[in-house]
């Protein structure tokens, strides 16, 4: 049977349940202001550019259909991708889990003799804890995406798929740069242009002096063996062209069949994620080109629980995700708690359905409940992932307390017997003793009514009304 992601490595499991972490996040007013401001801004930009397209819903349907097709014939497409990458001078490695992927990348970097790598922003490498594995092997990883660099220098964790440092404001970023970035002028202001200029100077020399780069991939085209990375700052372009060796770690679900399919996602992704009509930098490469760019290319195809997700006929639609973060930007829960409360590199609604499946639901049992089931995420998703359906599906798989199981069994027994059910309806009138809206219930029953109203029983049941007539 397909294996889930191994425990103790990577960033898919939190140290505490979501309700505990969320309660602490809710008490952080600065965090709530930072996240609320950022998500509101992104939401407005995204809505404006999506509104320009008369065929947006057709694009969504096309993206969803392409992803469903990919998952239906994933082995075939991955083998085609491997053949094309190999034909173009690249080397393909298959990694069953995070441990194997970390070992492959660490060995490849060590073989070059380099003790430092530059990195393009990558959710997959965050997922497997590659930075920690490289550091343990004496190799320094340097994040080149500005937000990822802020997180790295602040000894922090990403809290958003698109904007990892969304929980930080510019005053906090200034303090991080002053404390952790060498050679920074103490007179540095918190103006965005000044902060960006400092980061640019810090990274420029790193780009020019580092021989190995590690990237993720937004998409891989099976028919040609082409990899694609989309980004906004140009750091990705530098990492993908300047080093001598390029290592790409890609989740196996990122493959698309053809260039025509890629066209659909290059319209969906920027509008849903950054609120742009197209990404400022879309970098593509196919294997090795003599005299141009990296002269050694390695592609690491990562499973790490994805086969287990694929095995679930309902849950597999979580693998449609193109990491746009649209669901995070509309989620009322994420907006108030931020991303750290989810305990996974994949926060928000998509993290609440993807992380439990990658790790096994028991290891992330609280995440399927990190939602109000309002459905805003489903409406926003550019590939139409029915996240509310997945949340309910996973809640059914979560290990339930014995008391709850007993209560549900008793309810099922009662509803299957008309006379007993009729008696229960009459007894329900006693709920008036619990006070208005159930506020008078004693512990532990008051845990349910703390965030819900207990419906008032009707003065007359339907059975009584029917009997009178």
Spans where pLDDT lies below 50 across 5 or more residues: none
The CATH level-2 architecture of the largest domain is identified as 3-Layer(aba) Sandwich
Cα shape: globular
- Structural classification: alpha/beta
GO molecular function, one term: 4 iron, 4 sulfur cluster binding
Domain LUD: 78-288
Region (Disordered): 435-460
Pfam families: Fer4_8, LUD_dom, LutB_C
Structure description:
This protein is an alpha/beta fold. It folds into 2 domains: 18-306, NagB/RpiA/CoA transferase-like (Rossmann fold); 415-468, no CATH class. Helices cover 48% and strands 10% of the residues. The chain has 22 helices and 10 strands. It has helices at residues 18-26, 29-50, 56-72, 74-87, 98-112, 123-128, 130-136, 146-153, 170-180, 192-209, 235-241, 259-273, 306-310, 326-330, 332-337, 348-359, 376-380, 387-395, 402-415, 418-427, 446-449, 462-468; strands spanning 91-95, 116-119, 140-143, 212-215, 219-221, 226-231, 245-251, 255-256, 281-285, 296-302. The strands form 2 sheets. It has a 6-stranded parallel beta sheet with strand order 1-10-7-4-2-3, sandwiched between helices. A 4-stranded mixed beta sheet has the order 8-5-6-9. Helix 3 packs across helix 12 (259-273), helix 9 (170-180) packs parallel to helix 10 (192-209) and helix 16 crosses helix 18 (387-395). The model has no long low-confidence stretch (mean pLDDT 93).
List keywords for this structure.
alpha/beta; about 475 residues; Rossmann fold; 22 helices; 2 domains; 4-stranded mixed β-sheet; 6-stranded parallel β-sheet; about 50% helix
Summarize the structure.
Residues 435-460 are annotated as: Disordered. The protein is of the alpha/beta class and 469 residues long.
